[in-house]
Amino acid sequence: NGESLEESKMVLGSKPPGCVNRCLNCRPCIATLVIPSHQMKEFSASSRGEDDSYYLLSWKCRCGNKLFQP
After folding, report:
1. How many Å separate Cα 54 from the centre of its chain?
2. Is 61 helix (H, G, I), strand (E, B) or coil?
3. Which residues contact 42 (CB under 8 A, 6 or more apart)?
4. Would the pLDDT of 22 be above 90?
5. Mean pLDDT of all residues in the chain?
6. What range defines the domain where residue 22 resides?
7. Theoretical Cys-Cys bridge with 19: which of 7, 40, 52, 61, CB 3.0 to 4.6 Å?
């Protein structure tokens, strides 16, 4: 099937995860994008001129103010 082959080519992390039963007993458990805090500012300021506005995004499951692994 061409569609299932196309779906398998999707980049890992490019779509939200299924968060059913991922937040223990907390409801609602929803997928959310998380931007990690910029912890190495002094290293990036002295590095090869990298853009400080670049952050990696990751998907997590969230319930209230708590985050869970998908």
Report:
1. 14
2. strand
3. none
4. yes
5. 73
6. 12-68
7. 61
